[in-house]
């Protein structure tokens, strides 16, 4: 293990090569999603990849939303990282414990994300509509107005840029960060 001193906190990382330890778990989740998407649209064909789905599952298309699919608040990893840094800067000001929502403050439907990935990749994204998952709500997005007001932070990247950057990363890392040695 390696220790990194950041904003007055000791952060233990798994190895000395971890550049952004706060984003490690988010990065791993994003990579797994990208590998799954890469497999679904035919970029990844190797059997030893994480992404093994031939198509994405869209859980429900009968929600009271414009295209019938669930709407969620997607945020670019860079916007999220900048939000974390902004919040850690408050620690240096000894402002006490506060809670901030970090999100885009607007939602994108599942089909909008699939469309964004189709545009970014230039390929069709295979998907199938399956039944709703129990507990899923039609629309969920954050109110990040406090973060903007008190930290001066706001998510800047839209779904098109998120998908474009995600696709570029996937093309450069078809096996993902997780499998790199």
From TrEMBL:
Pathway entry = Carbohydrate metabolism; galactose metabolism
Q: Give UniProt keywords alphabetically.
A: Isomerase, NAD
| Catalytic activity, EC | 5.1.3.2
A single GO BP? monosaccharide metabolic process
Q: Which residues form the PH domain?
A: 1-42
Nucleotide-binding in keyword set: no
GO CC term, one of those recorded: cytosol
Q: Which cofactor does it need?
A: NAD(+)
Q: Which GO terms describe its molecular function?
A: UDP-glucose 4-epimerase activity
Record field: catalytic activity: UDP-alpha-D-glucose = UDP-alpha-D-galactose
Enzyme superclass (EC): isomerase
Per its UniProt record, what InterPro entries does this chain match?
NAD(P)-bd_dom (IPR016040), NAD(P)-bd_dom_sf (IPR036291), PH_domain (IPR001849)
SUPFAM superfamilies attached here?
NAD(P)-binding Rossmann-fold domains, PH domain-like
Name this protein carries in UniProt? UDP-glucose 4-epimerase
Q: Which organism is it from?
A: Amphimedon queenslandica (Sponge)
């Amino acid at each position: 293990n390696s220790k990194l001193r950041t904003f007055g906190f000791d952060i233990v990382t798994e190895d000395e090569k971890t550049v952004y330890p706060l984003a490690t778990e988010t990065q791993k989740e994003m990579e797994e999603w990208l590998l799954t998407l890469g497999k679904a649209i035919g970029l990844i064909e190797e059997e030893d990849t994480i992404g093994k789905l031939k198509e994405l599952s869209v859980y429900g298309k009968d929600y009271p939303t414009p295209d019938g699919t669930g709407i969620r608040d997607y945020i670019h990893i860079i916007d999220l990282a900048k939000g974390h840094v902004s919040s850690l800067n408050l620690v240096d000001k000894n402002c006490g414990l506060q809670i901030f929502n970090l999100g885009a403050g607007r939602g994108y439907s599942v089909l909008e994300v699939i469309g964004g990935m189709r545009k970014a990749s230039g390929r069709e994204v295979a998907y199938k509509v399956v039944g709703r998952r129990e507990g899923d709500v039609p629309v969920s997005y954050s109110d990040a107005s406090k973060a903007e007001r008190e930290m001066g932070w706001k998510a800047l990247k839209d779904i098109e840029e998120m998908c474009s950057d995600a696709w570029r990363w996937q093309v450069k890392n078809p096996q993902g960060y997780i499998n790199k040695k």
